[in-house]
Amino acid sequence: MEKKWEELSPDEKQEAQFQKLLAPKDPEGNDLQFQSPEAEVAYKASINRFKEAVQLKESDRIPVSVFPGWFPILYSGMTPQEAMYDYEKCAAAFKKFVLDFEPDLQWGAVMPGPGKFFEILDYKLYAWPGHGVNPDSGYQCLEDEYMQPHEYDLLITDPSFFFRNFYLPRIFGALEGFTMLPPLTGILEMYGVAFNFIPFGLPPVQNTFKALFEAGAEALKWVTVMGGVNGELASLGFPNILGGFTKAPFDTIGDTLRGTKGIIMDMYRQPDKLLQALQSMTPIMIGMGLGAAQQTGNPVIFMPLHKGADGFMSDEQFKTFYWPTLKAVIEGLIGEGCIPFIAAEGGYNSRLEVIRDLPKGKTVWMFDQTDMVKAKEIVGDTLCLWGNIPSTMLKIGTPEDVKDYAKKLIDTVGKGGGFIMGNGAFFDHAEPENVQAMVDFTKEHGVYK
Questions:
Q1: Rounded to an integer, what distance in angstroms lies between the CA atom of residue 286 and that of residue 298?
Q2: Cα(201)–Cα(206) distance, rounded to whole angstroms?
Q3: Contact, 338 vs 362, CB < 8 A?
Q4: Cis omega before residue 207 (within 30°)?
Q5: d(CA 398, CA 191)
Q6: Dist. CA 226–CA 125, nearest whole Å
Q7: Which domains does the chain have, with CATH numbers?
Q8: pLDDT, tens digit, 9 for 90 and up, residues 184-213
Q9: Are 117 and 233 in contact, with CB atoms under 8 Å apart?
Q10: Cα(123)–Cα(138) distance, rounded to whole angstroms?
Q11: Residues 6 or more apart in contact with residue 189 via CB below 8 angstroms
Q12: Cβ neighbours around 88 below 10 Å, total
């Protein structure tokens, strides 16, 4: 008798998830029609290389990918502002980027985001091209204390209520009507139930929902175009390796609720409240990743680490405030067969002994300024390593510089499997010949004998 999903081991669930990637679907849920037999072979070979690397095994060769920031847009000759408002041009730019450089794995065209959507909701958390920053520039986070220090109990007691009634109206001007809504937990019995719905008849609340409907329509328009180019690239043999996104609980609070200054102060002034809040965020972050994987059918969940790098906090603070709940989120995803893809921004040299405490062959770590040889020695038997061609080298180096760096990675970090060649940090500006050198050299010289 076939096992139920809940009866499967994490290994069996991961295998089942990889089988989904090897049998891609189109937007209508039908089997994806590849544009040629060669495209199907290339697609499946890329997925299998990724799978073997995740599981710390050797395949035919080291897989190579390019995770850019705004580079595909600038490479195509358009501005970031154009990419955010002309979805077809944005999709075409990303398609050109993938077809020109031919990486094994691509990460989709959603990064620029839908500019009109942000306008509809009056987004205040970021400035974006043409709205607070130059049309030729990328985003700029407008960090502030969007959660006040005395509001921890609200967040801990009912996170959804806090986000809806307090946080969202502070970062979306069009959602001010949410401040007038009661908690949903008050809708219990017939007596008095109508009082809970009175706010929905008020003009500010109705205006908020009108804005949500308009924003939803725009988001649907945007994702239809971006999903279309991802499907087309898959049919040409280039799989999108990302199925969703979640965050470390510390970053969830520190990035956009309390802000960097706020959360640093909280570690000293109210550590117990911060720890309670981190625990409250943990199942929410697990659910966010699992929900995305279920929606997209892709189990690879991206997790950018923003505040855990060397020097941001002490080793003891990392072990107390950052790692326990991050580890819990990672293990929660692994338990359902997902593959956490963790971007360890900055350096993680002093964290390596700590992060090795994870299940073997279940995660990918994109290292930026971490010593890759040291990482191979300490965590290479546990974690799949990704990286770390420097962004500076891609911009001001030469193809020979890139090849020399890639060769060192292949000869050291690539030994025995468990390695994916790629850039160490997202980049906007690069010389195309340097990006091409990274891809071509790996395909030629990253072959396992």
A1: 15
A2: 7
A3: no
A4: no
A5: 74
A6: 23
A7: 5-65+241-445 (3.20.20.210)
A8: 888 888 888 999 999 999 999 999 999 999
A9: no
A10: 15
A11: none
A12: 10
Query: How far, in Å, are 52, 162, 197, 198 from residue 206 at the CA level?
Result: 52, 20, 12, 11
- Digit-coded pLDDT (tens) for 249-264: 999 999 999 999 999 9
Query: Tokens standing for 321?
Result: 């405030």
Determine the length of the chain. Answer: 449
Query: Would you give the end-to-end CA distance of the chain in angstroms?
Result: 41
Tokens for 43?
Answer: 């697609």
User: Distances in Å between the alpha carbon of 349 and those of 14, 39, 294, 324, 385?
Assistant: 29, 39, 34, 18, 13
Residue with tokens 């080291």: 62
For residue 345, what pLDDT band results from cuts at 50, 70 and 90?
very high
The DSSP H or E segment spanning 227 is helix 203-235
Is the four-CA dihedral 356, 360, 366, 372 of positive or negative sign? positive
pTM listed for this prediction: 0.96
- Which residue in 39, 64, 45 sits closest to 435, CA to CA? 64
Question: Any bridge partners for residue 342, and if so which?
Answer: 303, 365
Q: Tokens 């395949």 label which residue? A: 59
β-strands 384-389, 364-367 pairing: parallel
Predicted pLDDT of residue 69: 95
Positive or negative torsion for Cα 117, 118, 122, 125: positive
